[in-house]
Design a protein that fits this description.
Layout: E1 2-3, H1 11-20, H2 26-35, E2 39-46, E3 49-60, E4 63-71, H3 80-91, E5 96-102, H4 106-112, E6 115-123, E7 126-134
Parallel strand pairs: 4-5
Antiparallel strand pairs: 1-2, 2-3, 3-4, 5-7, 6-7
């Protein structure tokens, strides 16, 4: 895992972030990662190609919130997403990590061991879920 902190956004990172947020928010979100000390963005490479990223906001020294997590479609299901979460928890010695997601990613978080709670229809026609994990 490599920290992403370049002022210019790599096109693959931009594509990955598009899987995790709306197109119109990508540049603003990326700038937040490069400007705020409590936000970190990491990427994973395979054979020199960026294949995933995870963005985390740290609420305090023991708690993190996954703001963005994405893996290129061709690499999904290979454990990269889970390894990114484990990396963040270990690197920052977290006791707790959470995320908000849609129904498409609920199984990923459930399979990792997150407790998932429906937040209901937060946006018209879109159910959102709160996922929380106590690191042991």
């Amino acid at each position: 895992m490599k920290e992403v902190n370049s002022i210019r956004i790599d096109q693959t990172i931009k594509k990955l972030l598009s899987y995790a947020t709306s197109e119109e928010k990508i540049d603003k979100e990326y700038k937040t990662y490069t400007c705020l000390s409590n936000r970190k963005l990491y990427s994973t490479e395979i054979n020199g190609e960026i294949v995933s990223c995870i963005g985390v906001e740290f609420r305090n020294s023991k708690e993190g919130v996954i703001k963005h997590i994405a893996v290129l479609p061709k690499e999904r299901g290979s454990g990269i997403g889970s390894s990114m979460i484990r990396f963040i928890c270990k690197k920052y010695n977290l006791n707790f990590i959470s995320a908000e997601t849609d129904k498409d990613a609920v199984m990923f978080y459930t399979n990792f061991g997150f407790r998932v709670t429906s937040l209901g229809e937060k946006y018209p026609g879109v159910e959102r879920f709160f996922c929380e994990f106590e690191v042991k």
